[in-house]
Amino acid sequence: MLADLKLAIRLQEIDSRLVDLQREIAALPVHISAIEKKLVSHERKLEADRAALVANQKERKQCEGDIQVQEQKISKLKGQMLEAKTNEQYRAFQSEIEFCETEIRKIEDRILDLMAESEPLDRNMKSAETALRTEKLQVEAEKGRARERTAVDQKSVAELQQERGAIVPKMPASTVQKYERARKSRKGIGVAEVVDGRCTACNMALRLQYFQDLKKDDQILTCESCQRLLYYNPPVTIEDLTGEAAPAVQQ
């Protein structure tokens, strides 16, 4: 294979790897942002549960205070009832006491409801706190791995760019131009192998004579369809691998 064509193939390998590395480098911050947003949403949910539990406890305390107020009213009304001078006054005090007792029962029912609501809130909050601690550790570990991966990728990018910078000057300017033109217009692929007389990149068959010219390996040819640089690897035979002739087939 021509030396310039080998360099073009290596250039393609480098450019393809650079694209992969740059895509990975760009994707890592997006990944970290996604898991951080997920963590923030869990933190907000936990804060909402805490706020709901605090509100629940506050209302229960208020209810307990309201019961005390009603009990004080009942105590006062009972004292006044003893001083009632008429049956009407007595019945009026008795009616007010019954009203206060009804209010107390309503408040007690509300307290029971609040207690029933607080149990799952408290349980969920404790569970969420434990899960959140674990998730924070996982996020920090993932961020650390992402930083390490990015550093490795950036080092690889620098090394490949350095190698690329050394290869390009060794190639004829016309070959580099053909390669770059094809790579930029053909989704990053500027070199293609020919297999069974077809360009593997665009799958178009080569003219028979053109295919024969490619096999001669004395010039760099481009695909007449997609303009990519072409190369041909002859099939490997047993003779190529062992240096010995293949055994004759027994009739």
Main attributes of the structure:
single chain; 251 residues; mainly alpha; Helix Hairpins; 2 domains; three-stranded mixed beta sheet; 75% helix; 4% strand
What does it look like?
By secondary structure, this protein is mostly helical. The chain has two domains: 3-170, Helix Hairpins, CATH 1.10.287; 173-241, no CATH class. It has five helices and three strands. The protein has helices at 3-82, 87-167, 173-185, 208-216, 238-242, and strands at 191-195, 198-199, 229-231. A three-stranded mixed beta sheet has the order 2-1-3. A hairpin with a 2-residue loop joins strand 1 (191-195) and strand 2. The radius of gyration is 42 Å and the shape is rod-shaped. The protein starts with a helix and ends in a 9-residue tail after the last helix. The model is unreliable at 245-251 (pLDDT under 50).
